[in-house]
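Per reviewer request, we include the raw input and output of the structure prediction for the construct analysed in the revised manuscript.
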Amino acid sequence: MERKGVCMKIGIYGGTFNPPHLGHLEAARTAVKVLELDKLILIPAAVPPHKALPEGTPEGPPRLAMTERMADALSMPKVAEVSRMELDREGKSYTADTLRAIRAQYPDAQLWLLMGTDMFLTLHLWHDPEVITQLAGICAFGRTEQDGEEPQREFLSQKYQAQIVTITLPGLVDVSSTRLRELLARGEGQEYLLPQVYGYILMNRLYGTHADLKRLELPELRACSYSMIRAKRVPHVMGVEEEAVRLVAAAVRRGRVGIADPGRPMGSFLFLGPTGVGK
């Protein structure tokens, strides 16, 4: 919501989000805080102009769904939103076209384009860089101060009169999307992802994952369950799980407890008690 007497500040964070990981999440959260954004728009690209989508990349809808889960995990329902404008637009996903569309929708807002340092260092090579820098300020973030960052800042400021803010995030997740996709294909890499995003990947068998959804380990089962609910419900689900464990433990201490055994015929039970397991 626009603050009285102050123009709305809108952050635009685009990318392939292939997949969205914890680095994207932390960068988005920090940008909202540092720039004091009123709105953050996450925009998955359909056809990125600067690189071809790698083989095996999910179509737009799955990447949109994963980005929506990341936005939900920010826990900023009045600030963060996901737009499918580039997925719906034909042709390459030019940032200049996206900014024009957002400017038309919010003519009086202050726009900030968010990007990583690697993108910032090549911004002058993008399609219509003069339009981009005219329509929006540039916010670049990275893990460390880059050697080429200051010369690029000076170049863009002088040539395009660009307004630039740089944010250093020393603890930013150190993994590229390419590396993460390779890890996922080997059954690894979940530590770089939100559980709900990882669960969505498993349930839809993206990035070469082949999880047996009927025989998941507990962490994978949790991730899949979290992918189907809103982030604000996760603490409740975790609480229910912990309470169930507590009740079973208490029952075991009091005596023998019967539980269904999936490895035995229907109607068979294992009995848990102070002395161990029996039929």
